[in-house]
Amino acid sequence: MKARYRIPITVVYYLALSLVMVYPLYKTGFLFNGYDQVFHLSRAHELATAFKAGHFGYSYAMNSFNDVGQAVGVFYPSLSVLVLAIFQLLFSNLVLSTYMAVFVTVFLGLLISHYAIMRLKKGHLTAAIFSSLYIGSTIFLNVCFVWFDMGWLWALIFIPLVLSGFVQIFAHRSATVTDFVIGIAALLLSHIVSFFVVLSGLVVVTVIIAFYRSDFYFYLRKFILGGLVAMGCTAFFWIKFVRIYLTNTISGVNKIDSSFYALKPGTIFTDSLNNTSVTGNIGAIILLVLIVLLTQKNKFDLLDGSALAGSILCLFLSSSLFPWIHVQKYLGSFIQYPVRFLSVAMVGLAFVAADVLSQMLSTKEYRFKTLTTSGLALGLILTAFSSATELSSHLDTNDQLRTPSINVLAQPSNKFNENAAKHIFSERFLMAGQFDYWPQQSIKFGQDIIRHVGAINGKKVRLSPTPVKNGLSYHVSLKKGDQVDLPLLSYGDGLKVPNGLKVTTSHRGTVLITSNKPVKSIVVERTNSIIDILANVVSVLVAISFAFLWAHKKFGLKRIF
Predict the structure, then answer these.
(1) 210 SS3 class
(2) Sheet of 465-467: strands edge to edge?
(3) Is 71 helix (H, G, I), strand (E, B) or coil?
(4) Rounded to an integer, what distance in angstroms lies between the CA atom of residue 334 and that of residue 415?
(5) Helix or strand or coil: residue 503?
(6) Quick one: how many helices (H) and strands (E) in the chain?
(7) Is 251 left (phi over 0), alpha (psi -120 to 50) or beta?
(8) Which regions span the lipid bilayer (predicted)?
(9) What is the pTM of this model?
(10) Are 76 and 47 in contact (CB under 8 A)?
(11) Least buried of 18, 229, 311, 459, by fewest C-beta within 10 Å?
(12) Which value, in Å, is the radius of gyration of the alpha carbons in the chain?
C-alpha cells in the first residue's frame, strides 16, 4: 500500500469496523439494559448536567442516583463517561445518543490501540491487525453491551497505551515517558480497579527485569518519574478520593463471590471457537492463531514471548483453575470479577497474533500481500459483524420491553425504547450501584433516604429536592431553633447554606441543619475545600509543565514561541 493512501484507508477501515460492531444493536431501536447500564448512563447524565452549569465535572450526584448527593464522582472518575455525556448534550434521544457515543468510543479505541503499537516501532500492518483483533474482539463487545461497564471499557482502550509506554521505557534508552504518563493517568481516571491490576502487574515485571538488566536503575528512575508525573496530573481526583475515604466509613461496592464469575476453561474454548460475545472469551481468530503458535517450534522474540507468557498467566487468573474461592477474603471484594484478567490477557494475545500475522504477510510478494491483507480485513469485519448480530438477537427478546408507567426501574434484563428511556433519570434508582459509596451509617436508613424522607424536629416528613446550579433546594418552613434532617448524604465535605443556618451530620449520616432564623426554603450547595483547590492547582501546573517539556523536546523552543 502506498504511504499516501495508508492513513485514509486505515481510518475508513476503522470507521467500517466501528459501524458493524454497533449497527446491529442500534437498528433494534432499543437500549439493552446491561448489568451496569443505568449506573453509567446516570453518571453521564450527571456529568452532562455539570457541563450545562459551567463546571468541568462533579463530585456528588444531585441530578440522578435518587438526588441524595451520592459521592459517585468522588470515587468513580468521570473520564469513562465523557463521550456519553457529550452525546447526551447533543441529542435528546437517549437511544441515539448512547449508540453514537459507543460508535465514537469504538473508533477512538481503534485509533489509540493503533498508535500504541506504532510507538513500539511496529509497522502500520501490525498496528491495524492488533487494533482489529483487540477492539473488535468478543470480550470488547461483551463489556460494551452485556456489562455496559464504561469504566472497564475505557480501561480496555487505555491498557495498550500503558503497556506500550512501559515497554518503551525499558526497551529504548532514549525513549520518553510521554505515552506511559498519558496512559497511566487516563487509566486511573477511567477505572480504578483496572489501574491497580495493571500497576501491580507492572511492578512485578519491573522486579523481574531487575535481575536481568545491569543498567536497571536508569530505567527504574524513568519508570518512577513517569508514575509521579501521572499522579501529579491526576491529583485533582485521587487526593479528594483519599480524603473523603479516610474521613468517612464508606460502604464501597457490593461484595460478591468472585469464584462464581471465574470462567470455566472448557467454556472459554468453546465460546471462543463460536466467536460469541454473549460470554467472556478470546474469540475465534485469536484462539486459532494461539493454537498454531503453541504447536510451532519457532522461537518467539523477547517481547512476543513475554507478552504470550503474561497472557497465559492472565488467562489462568481469569479461570476457575485459580482457587478464587480460597482467596475471596483477600482479593475477591476488590477484583470482583476474575474475567477482568481476560481483558488484560487479550492485549498480549492480540499483540502476538498481530505480530506473527504481519511477519507472515511481509514475506509475500506485493500483489499477494495486498490481496491477503484485504481478505484479512474483510474477514475481521465480517466476524465482528456476525458477533454483534448474534449479540443483538440474544438481547432483543419480545417479552422484556420496559414501560415507564411505574416509578421504580424494572429488573436488569429489560430493554428500553426511546419513550421508556426518557424516564431513566427521573425515576427512583434501584439498579446496580444504588448504595455504592454511601456513608456506612446511612445504609440502614437507605429506603427512607432514597424516598426523600427527612425529619423536622424528629418528625418524619417528605422533602423532595429541586436541583439548582450547584446543589439542591428544599421547600421547608422552619422557625428559629428548628432542626431539619435532610435526605442528603453528608461526607463532612464543604457545604454552603444561607446565613443563619448551622450544618452538622445527623445519626443517619445525612445533612442536619439547625435554623437560627425563620426560613421558607433551604439551598444546600457543595463547595471545594482548600485541599481540593490546591490539588486542582497542582494538577494544572504538572500537566502544563509536562506538556511544555514534551513540546520542547519534540519541537524545540523556537517552534513553541
Answers:
(1) helix
(2) 465-467, 471-478, 519-526, 495-496
(3) coil
(4) 29
(5) strand
(6) 23, 11
(7) alpha
(8) 7-26, 68-91, 98-117, 123-145, 152-171, 183-211, 223-246, 278-295, 307-325, 337-358, 533-551
(9) 0.90
(10) no
(11) 459
(12) 25
Q: What is the DSSP string of 414-475?
A: -EE-HHHHTTTTTSB--STTTTTT-BGGGGGGHHHHHTTEEEETTEEEE--EEE-SSEEEEE
Give the closest residue to 266 by CA, choosing from 321, 346, 314: 321
Q: Find where cell 444561607 sits.
A: 498
> Grid coordinates standing for 179?
505515552
Among 470, 546, 35, 75, smallest CA distance to 261 is for: 35
5: burial class by Cβ within 10 Å (0-12, 13-18, 19+)?
Answer: exposed
For 245, 265, 518, the CA distances from 487, given in Å and listed in that order, are 21, 48, 20
Instruction: Report the 10 Å Cβ neighbour count for 171.
Output: 13
Is there a contact between 112 and 157 (Cβ–Cβ < 8 Å)? Answer: yes
Torsion region of 409: left, alpha or beta (phi above 0 gives left; psi -120 to 50 gives alpha) = beta
The C-alpha atoms of residue 464 and residue 444 are separated, in whole angstroms, by 20
Q: What are phi and psi of 262, to 5 degrees?
A: -70, 140
Which grid cell is 10? 486505515
* CA distance linking residue 381 with residue 445, whole number of Å: 51
All 3 cell numbers of residue 460?
A: 418524619
Q: What angle do CA 514, 515, 518 make, to 5 degrees?
A: 160
474 grid coordinates:
428544599
Give the Cα separation of 159 and 117 in Å (integer).
12
Instruction: Name the residue with cell 469464584.
Output: 259
**H or E element at residue 547:** helix 530-555
pLDDT tens, the chain, 561 aa long? 566 778 899 999 999 999 999 999 999 888 887 788 888 999 999 999 999 888 888 889 888 888 899 999 999 999 999 999 999 999 989 999 999 999 999 999 999 999 999 998 788 999 999 999 999 999 999 999 988 999 999 999 999 999 999 999 988 777 789 999 999 999 999 999 999 999 999 999 999 999 888 888 888 999 999 999 999 999 999 999 999 999 988 887 666 777 777 888 888 889 988 888 888 888 888 888 888 777 776 677 888 888 989 999 999 999 888 888 777 766 656 677 888 899 889 999 999 999 888 888 876 677 777 788 888 899 999 999 999 999 888 877 654 444 444 434 444 446 777 777 777 777 665 566 678 899 999 999 988 998 899 999 989 999 989 888 778 999 988 888 899 999 999 998 778 888 778 888 999 999 999 988 888 889 888 888 899 999 999 999 999 999 988 887 776 544 433
Report the C-alpha gap between 407 and 425 in whole angstroms. 11
CA atoms within 13 A on the CB side of 26: 17
Please give the single-letter amino acid code of residue 528.
N
Where is 9: in which H helix or E strand? helix 3-26
Q: Say if CB 181 and CB 229 are below 8 A apart.
A: yes
Q: State the Cα angle at 49 between 504 and 105, rounded to 5°.
A: 125
Phi, psi of 495 (to 5 degrees): -130, 140
Classify 550 as helix, strand or coil.
helix
